[in-house]
Amino acid sequence: MLAVQADGGAVQTIEGLATNGELHPLQRAFRQEHGLQCGFCTPGVIMASTALLDLGRELTDEEIRHGLEGNLCRCTGYENIFNAVRSAIAEVSA
Ligand code: FES
Q: Any idea what the CATH number is for the domain that residue 79 is in?
């Protein structure tokens, strides 16, 4: 999306996820599950994952993988990232 397309909209970034110094459940889960990639990929995946959490329900593994498929990285596998997202969804949905 071009920046001009967001004119008048709300833009949330990784820096805005923590609240009063407390990490967002996704940030905690990524740290716990070692779902870390580079400084481009990690924020991108976490922000894409917030949309999955915002659905407010448990998701199937296929739904999680589909929700993350727009984040492309060939540096490593996605298993730790997948585990982190699944863990955060379980925590928030409980
Ligand atoms: S970890 Fe970011 S491009 Fe691969």
A: 1.10.150.120
pLDDT tens digits along 64-84: 999 999 988 888 778 999 999
Contacts of 14 (CB under 8 A, 6+ apart): 42, 43, 46, 47
Answer yes or no: is 32 within a domain: yes
User: Counting runs of H as helices and runs of E as strands, what totals does the chain give?
Assistant: 4, 0
Say how many Å lie between the CA of residue 69 and the centre of ligand 1: 14
Total of domains in the chain? 1
pTM exceeds 0.85: yes
Instruction: Using alpha carbons, list the distances in angstroms from residue 9 to 4, 5, 12, 51.
Output: 10, 8, 10, 16
Distance 15 CA to ligand 1 centre (A): 19
Please tell me what DSSP assigns to residue 45: H
